[in-house]
Design brief:
Blueprint (H helix, E strand, L loop, with lengths): L1 H31 L3 E8 L6 H15 L2 E8 L6 H7 L6 E7 L2 H12 L8 E5 L14
Parallel strand pairs: 1-2, 1-4, 2-3
Length: about 140
């Protein structure tokens, strides 16, 4: 009889704990829901990596409960990089924007890279043309 009563109390305690954990996650998610993480990526002939990068950022957004905005600057790709990016533009939790990297955009991007050390600039700038550039993206090694 006592053993049954202890099992009932344990089940009740587990249910109370579960309700508190779920409520804490709900409160945290509603506070983080407005948080946006911005990535600016420079690509050139990266058809083998670009889909994995977008999918990894989508997984990051899903697991951390944030919105991810990604701007791809493409420097005259001769492969299927742009076609892959346009196909992935409907990926959930990730806003994709694809732009060509011409001379005027290069100057603007260099200026943004210099000013990216400021706290009010929340963007993460990654040049994928550099061999170790993709290592700064979550879930990409």
């Amino acid at each position: 009889m006592v053993a049954h009563l202890l099992w009932i109390l344990a089940a009740y305690g587990a249910a109370v704990l579960l309700v508190h954990v779920m409520h804490a996650r709900y409160v945290k998610r509603s506070a983080d829901q407005n948080r946006v993480v911005q990535y600016v990526l420079v690509t050139s002939n990266h058809e083998r990596k670009v889909e994995w990068i977008v999918r990894a950022l989508s997984l990051y957004a899903l697991l951390h409960g944030v919105r991810v905005q990604v701007t791809f600057y493409d420097e005259q790709s001769g492969d299927q990089t742009l076609a892959i990016l346009h196909r992935l533009s409907g990926c959930p939790d990730v806003e994709l924007k694809v732009m060509d990297l011409d001379d005027s955009e290069k100057e603007k991007l260099k200026l943004r890279l210099r000013n990216s050390r400021k706290k009010e600039d929340r963007g993460i700038y990654i040049d994928l043309r550099v061999p170790a550039g993709a290592a700064r993206i979550p879930y990409v090694q």
